[in-house]
Amino acid sequence: xKKLLFIAYLIPCFNLQAQFIxxxxxxxxxxxxxxxxxxxxxxxxxxxxxxxxxLLNHPLDINNAxxxxxxxxxxxxxLQVNSLIKYRVENGALLxxxxxxxxxxxxxxxxxxxxxFIIVRNPEEQLNSKLLKRxxxxxxxxxxxxxxxGLETRAGFKEDDSLRRFLGHPQKYYLRYRNSIANDFSFGxxxxxxxxxxxxxxxxxxxFGFDYLSFHAQIQNKGKIKNLIVGDYQLQSxxxxxxxxxxxxxKGGETINSIRRSNILAVPFTSxxxxxxxxxxxxxxxxxxxxxxxxxxxxxxxxxxxxxxSLENNIVSSLQSTGFHRNINELIDRxxxxxxxxxxxxxxxxxALQTGIIYQYINFNKVxxxxxxxxxxxxxxxxxxxxxxxxxxxxxxxxxxxxxLAYQNPATIAFVAGTLxxxxxxxxxxxxxRNYPRNFYTFSANAFSEASQPKNERGLYWGLKYKIxxxxxxxxxxxxxxxxxxxxxxxxxxxxxxxxxxxxYQPTKTINYSLQLRxxxxxxxxxxxxxxxxxxxxxxxxxFINVDYTVAPKLTMxxxxxxxxxxxxxxxxxxxxIIQDLxxxxxxxxxxGRYALFNTDDFDxxxxxxxxxxxxxxxxxxxxxxxxxxxxxxxYDFNKKLSFWFRYxxxxxxxxxxxxxxxxxxxxxVRTDVKCQVRVKF
Length: 682
Hints:
This is Helix-hairpin-helix domain-containing protein. The chain is mostly beta strands. It has 2 domains: 5-552, no CATH class; 553-682, no CATH class.
């Protein structure tokens, strides 16, 4: 009763000072932009973005969320996570989102950021109803149908060669159904048909209409069964050296919390990204109050390029990740490599200590043998891969210590370790060291690294974040790294560095300024024609100034200037983009749009900027050359059950006769895409 009276007292205060409870006021684009403040070719941002969208659309029950799940949001620091957990222990379950303000060390800015990812669920809703009833009456039960079409004709639809010509319609289709309650149950289906792919029913080739089908069924917290998933899933354990889903953001605007991987174990794989998830069964079982065991098995067919030198078709030269099966050539590579995985994670949890071991065995039905080049002499070759590791996470007051040590035959040891914490409510620090040998390879790793895979790399990272004032915040990092062996486009051992500085000023709730500077120095080949493969150090500098502001109660805008400079072999090139976004909320109708001007000397200075898209969709592309990018996004909610989206996007690049390359090339200097989506909530 005292808690209810206290919350009732807080409500008028929130109406006057902290009206953050309306989720429509939270700019998800700004949240993602702060976590991924710059983009390059080394990371799979689409998979990471899909996971964040999944978190947004299936928020955590704040009263049941574990410390690992809270850390996985990369929003709260260690001091705030510990304060929230301590508050729950001492005061019981939160009764309302308003109660977050009463938790020590949770400032309004952090609460605003975390709100889209959490809910406060009524305990009786879960305890006093049967599973079938919860499934039937669950409000988070929806069907999404989407269609995309490029208005200009791509080369693949005009190609005369029968092996290259696309077999399907130029329209892309996407379907997704899901019914879930966080920490309780989830089941769903995802289907996708890329533009140019044929819609066919060929069971022996594992195609059932749609080119890509994904399914999962999950139950959680049923006695000693803490998590059971049948179907498609992904695993994140330790620091991602052996098992790493796309939950790590790498380096960016968030300089502290993002360096540590959360030990969240298995989650459903609901993405339309082919060739990334696991398929089979995984179970987390509570052996003892302090011991959990998570065995897993996965059997899946993946796309691969069968070597022309293989007379018996038992050698593949590379794995494919595009997921395109549009013509006969691409269909030859479809699901030709059978992959079997078995393994487990065993963890011991007691108080602030979490430690465990991980084992994974992978077997292919064909020999993986990539074409030999100077840089890939230590790449994986063969049919079997085994890796084991040990990890530890330990919290001490406001500091978290973490690390993982992995072993792989023959006598290959990789490790990553670090600490992050709060020296005060205003000052956070992070340190991380890593050493990944040149012959270390695990196929599903996602540990912190400069390159896209944690191999052939040593490095040391320092990060800090300081709240100068309630309106001012600064963050920075420096990362020193070296590559002991050769790399693609870098045929000599090398070293480099990267630093970033970011300053944010938010004088009111309705306006937010950001300034970011970044410099990266890495080595690469001067020319591929030179037999000596001479190399030189290249430096790339990035600058952006961003302003988010509310012009009127229903009109929000974002203005952004981006600039890059790339120096290589005594030659400097530049790139720039000026971007204006706006969103107007009419109530049932919401309109968002962008107008961007860009001018880059070359592709090294391409400009990235996340674009707003429809619910569960992803739009993220580089701007290169000289041109204009614009789009408009309409969302109309007919009622609480039915919503409709329409998106029109257009890009014009001056001075070019065609856009794209290969089978995706289009004639002319413009490209136009339209997209429609319907969501039905049951």
